């Protein structure tokens, strides 16, 4: 599933499209042809990846300006010899092809799926890079270390766990506090307390 938000939500920094030249009367036609070509190339790549039965996953394709070459992004858990696949793709696409292997986080950023919060992944929508998230940081926040709760869509620790290491970290105290619930007031010992809570 590919999710692209046309307008960023409030508080998000949107990705500014790169300007490659001044538009003329033929631009809409070329743009439509380019989109059709992109889908055709994706289809050809998926077909070749499946036919070779290599331990590789096709992720995406980017074109050089002018359509002289393409960069094909793939992911793989192990090192794979893809020389024959590369040769077949160059022959069928009739252009120069560069193969680029992506890591788990880069793959998630490139595909841009939805996170467990229901929004587009942070790395796709506004993060300029990947923050360092350690197990120590997760334990400090008393966040569960179970993979289904602490892992993001890439299978690594969620980037959003690093958000509370800046301004909120010094004000966090390990003393609990009174919490009001539907069943009445109660004590929450050891629960992290943030300002205003």
Structure description:
This protein has 197 residues and is of the alpha+beta class. The protein has 3 domains: 1-128, no CATH class; 131-165, no CATH class; 170-197, no CATH class. It is 32% helix and 16% strand. It has helices at 27-52, 83-93, 104-111, 122-125, 135-140, 147-150, 168-171, and strands at 57-63, 69-75, 96-102, 177-181, 184-188. The protein has a 3-stranded mixed sheet with strand order 1-2-3. A two-stranded antiparallel ribbon has the order 4-5. Helix 1 (27-52) runs antiparallel to helix 2. The longest helix has 26 residues, at 27-52. It is elongated.
What is the secondary structure topology, with strand pairs?
Blueprint: H1 27-52, E1 57-63, E2 69-75, H2 83-93, E3 96-102, H3 104-111, H4 122-125, H5 135-140, H6 147-150, H7 168-171, E4 177-181, E5 184-188
Parallel strand pairs: 2-3
Antiparallel strand pairs: 1-2, 4-5
Largest sheet: 3 strands, mixed
Cα shape: elongated
* Strand arrangement, major sheet: 1-2-3
How many individual β-strands?
5
Q: What does the average pLDDT come to?
A: 74
- Uncertain regions: pLDDT < 50 for 5+ in a row? 1-13, 167-175, 193-197
Separation of termini?
Answer: 37 Å
Structural class: alpha+beta
Count of discrete alpha- or pi-helical segments spanning 4 or more residues: 7
Helix content: 25-40%
- What pattern of helices and strands is seen along the backbone? HEEHEHHHHHEE
- C-alpha-based Rg, rounded: 23 Å
Domain module count = 3
Give the amount of beta strand, in percent.
15-25%
């Amino acid at each position: 599933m590919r999710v692209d938000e046309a307008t960023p939500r409030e508080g998000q920094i949107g990705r500014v499209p790169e300007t490659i030249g001044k538009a003329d009367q033929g631009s809409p036609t070329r743009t439509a042809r380019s989109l059709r070509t992109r889908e055709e190339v994706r289809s050809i790549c998926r077909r070749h990846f499946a036919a070779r039965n290599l331990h590789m996953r096709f992720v995406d394709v980017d074109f050089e300006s002018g359509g002289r070459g393409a960069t094909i992004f793939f992911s793989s858990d192990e090192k794979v010899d893809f020389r024959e696949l590369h040769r077949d793709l160059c022959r069928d696409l009739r252009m120069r092809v560069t193969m680029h292997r992506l890591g788990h986080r880069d793959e998630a950023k490139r595909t841009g799926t939805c996170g467990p919060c229901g929004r587009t992944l942070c790395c796709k929508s506004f993060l300029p890079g990947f923050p360092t998230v350690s197990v120590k940081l997760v334990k400090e926040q008393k966040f569960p270390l179970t993979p289904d709760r602490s892992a993001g869509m890439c299978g690594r620790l969620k980037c959003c766990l690093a958000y509370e290491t800046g301004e909120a970290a010094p004000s966090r105290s390990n003393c609990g506090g009174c919490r009001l619930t539907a069943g009445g007031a109660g004590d929450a010992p050891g629960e992290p307390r943030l300002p205003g809570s």
